[in-house]
Amino acid sequence: FTDIGNIWLVNEDESRPGGRFNANTFINELAVSSGIGLRISIDPIIVRFDWAWPMRYPYPIENSHWVIDDINFSSYDWRKKNLILNISLGYPF
Predict the structure, then answer these.
(1) In sequence order, what DSSP letters do the residues of 23-41 get, joined into one string?
(2) Three-class DSSP category at 72
């Protein structure tokens, strides 16, 4: 799967500078991640496991938002910092 998005504020908040939605800049504030997922349906519940990693941060890192070139599944440090396991109950997506 691929997930693209971010969360913005409707109103300005001094504790979150730059967090308010701006139609002129939001496209550059999108995060992109990819991953694999598993859905298990055992009546009456659905269990979801999603394993994801970042491809683009919503903020620049070393002058770039994109981190595709940095993906290294064989590196323990990279896996520890970037691989995210989400477990959800009752939501198919």
Answers:
(1) TTTGGGG-EEEEEEEEEEE
(2) coil
Residue ranges making up the domain that contains 30? 2-89
**32, 59 contact by CB (below 8 A):** no
Q: For residue 51, what is the DSSP state?
A: E
pLDDT > 80? residue 24:
yes
b/e 27-62 (16+ beta carbons within 10 angstroms → b): eebebbbebeeeeeeeeeeeebebebbbbbbeeeee
- Mean pLDDT score across all residues of the chain: 90
**Domain tally, the chain:** 1
How many of the other CB atoms lie within 10 Å of CB of 71? Answer: 13
The answer to whether the predicted template modeling score (pTM) of the entire model surpasses 0.85 is no
